[in-house]
């Protein structure tokens, strides 16, 4: 389960959303190939929120007043001078879906669906894509007991294949809890490492 650490930040990015099950590629475990793990260290430690529900945040106080209501954080692969990853925060499914609808429209001409490229997001047991991994193509699933609270890093599917990957702190039967979301147009080709409160905490995953 996640216990998010909300530092002073300006942001846009978290929403707890109930998810519908869709057909997905069955997850399977296999030894990881870490030859391509030469990427910047995008370790998810804390966030600097740029906006909440699409509205710019102008002071740390504004974030602090809203942080307890933020349910899903969309993480950007950029950091401020303190090492906090930039993020967008969302407090409801309605505001998140409104953002996604506009964002997909903005991206549709940039990333046209193709028959090639990575179709799945890979989830690894260690940082920098180390150890065993599972992959998922589309939809929502509660993690099996073998993978519950085990994910330490991930690499997303291609933006031409799907829009985003979300880790949820709880299973659907436990109410999902808070989530951390990775937009594929930002993260494809990069490795996101979890740390402290975000490491080994995911109980469910969603690709859409």
Features:
208 residues, mainly beta, Gamma-B Crystallin, domain 1, 9-stranded mixed beta sheet, 6-stranded mixed beta sheet, 3 helices, 15 strands, globular, signal, G_crystallin-like
Write up this protein.
There is one protein chain. It contains three helices and 15 strands. Mean pLDDT is 80; it is low at 1-39. With 208 residues, the chain is mostly beta strands. It has helices at residues 60-66, 93-107, 184-187, and strands spanning 11-12, 30-31, 42-44, 47-52, 55-56, 72-79, 85-90, 121-126, 130-136, 139-142, 153-155, 164-168, 179-183, 192-194, 204-207. The strands form two sheets. Strands 1, 4, 5, 6, 7, 10, 12, 13 and 15 form a nine-stranded mixed beta sheet that branches. It has one domain (11-19, 43-207): Crystallins (Gamma-B Crystallin, domain 1). InterPro entries: G_crystallin-like. Keywords: Signal. Residues 1-29 form the signal peptide.
Describe the protein's topology.
Layout: E1 11-12, E2 30-31, E3 42-44, E4 47-52, E5 55-56, H1 60-66, E6 72-79, E7 85-90, H2 93-107, E8 121-126, E9 130-136, E10 139-142, E11 153-155, E12 164-168, E13 179-183, H3 184-187, E14 192-194, E15 204-207
Parallel strand pairs: 1-7, 3-14, 4-7, 6-13
Antiparallel strand pairs: 2-9, 4-5, 6-7, 8-9, 8-11, 10-15, 11-14, 12-13, 12-15
- Kindly state the mean pLDDT as a whole number? 80
What structural class do the secondary elements suggest? mainly beta
- Biggest sheet statistics: 9 strands, mixed
Ranges with pLDDT <50 over ≥5 residues? 1-39
At the third CATH level, what is the topology name?
A: Gamma-B Crystallin, domain 1
**Rough outline:** globular
How many distinct domains?
1
Do you know the CATH architecture? Sandwich
Give a count of the beta strands, DSSP E runs of length 2 or more.
15
**CATH class term:** Mainly Beta
Rg, rounded, reads 16 Å
CA(first)-CA(last) distance = 21 Å
Q: Report the order of strands and helices.
A: EEEEEHEEHEEEEEEHEE
Q: Report the β-strand fraction as a percent range.
A: 25-35%
Helix tally equals 3
Can you say what the CATH homologous superfamily is?
Answer: Crystallins
Helix content: 10-25%
């Amino acid at each position: 389960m996640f216990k998010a650490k909300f530092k002073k930040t300006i942001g846009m990015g978290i929403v707890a959303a109930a998810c519908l099950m869709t057909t997905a590629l069955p997850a399977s475990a296999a030894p990881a190939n870490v030859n391509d793990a030469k990427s910047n260290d995008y370790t998810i430690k804390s966030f600097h929120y740029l906006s909440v529900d699409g509205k710019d945040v102008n002071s740390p106080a504004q974030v602090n007043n809203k942080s307890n209501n933020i349910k899903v954080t969309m993480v950007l692969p950029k950091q401020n001078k303190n090492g906090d990853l930039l993020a967008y925060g969302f407090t409801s499914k309605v505001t998140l879906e409104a953002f996604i609808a506009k964002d997909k429209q903005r991206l549709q001409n940039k990333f046209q669906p193709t028959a090639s490229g990575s179709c799945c997001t890979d989830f690894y047991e260690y940082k920098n894509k180390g150890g065993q991994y599972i992959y998922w193509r589309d939809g929502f699933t509660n993690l099996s007991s073998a993978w519950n609270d085990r994910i330490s890093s991930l690499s997303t599917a291609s933006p031409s294949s799907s829009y985003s990957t979300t880790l949820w702190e709880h299973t659907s039967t436990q109410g999902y809890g808070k989530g951390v979301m990775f937009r594929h147009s930002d993260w494809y080709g990069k490795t996101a490492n979890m740390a402290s409160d975000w490491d080994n905490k995911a109980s469910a995953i969603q690709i859409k």
